């Protein structure tokens, strides 16, 4: 029987899809826009309130894994809706539920492009959640790095180091970026507090 992504072990994922960083490709933005149009054409508009490109491929001039990360806001009543899952599967996506964890409510995740055989395909990750999910802080992180090239370069340096030491450990690569990301998010929270107090 043909193996699917649902059959992969952690070791399989690390072996088949190691951490590999590429120079920034301006075409990533165009690829996102084309996939956004594809999604909007194939998914009922009632399920989608807002959509953004985030992650390192959305930040100019830094290396990134060539995966297009997309975050989609959906009304809370449609979270984990089977009709929504079925609609994404018709677009070639596989569905995974991201469980609740510290500060994050459970949400929907979809992936496409994880070819287990044959030529590599463009990989897309969709994170689908309601507007109050902490995942939306990633948009603030993206915007901060775009506006602050020195911080973006520091993030790139960290990623390059981790991609060297944890090329075959995707989980560790992601986990060891957490402190850097959280420090930026904490800075943004403090900036917003100062901004709010000055306006009151």
What features would you describe in this structure?
This protein has 200 residues and is an alpha+beta fold. The chain has a single domain, classed as Beta Polymerase, domain 2. Helix content is 44%, strand content 15%. The protein has a five-stranded mixed β-sheet with strand order 1-2-5-4-3, with helices on both faces. The longest helix is centred in the last third of the chain and has 22 residues, at 178-199. The radius of gyration is 18 Å and the shape is globular.
Essential attributes:
Beta Polymerase, domain 2, single chain, alpha+beta, 200 residues, five-stranded mixed sheet
Question: What is the CATH topology assignment?
Answer: Beta Polymerase, domain 2
CATH architecture tag: 2-Layer Sandwich
**What portion of the residues fall into strands of 2 or more residues?**
15-25%
How would you state the average pLDDT, rounded?
A: 94
- Whole-number tally of structural domains: 1
Q: What is the general shape?
A: globular
Helix content: 40-55%
- CATH class annotation: Alpha Beta
Count of distinct strands: 5
Fourth-tier CATH superfamily name: Beta Polymerase, domain 2
Q: What is the rounded Rg?
A: 18 Å
Counted by DSSP, the helix tally is 7
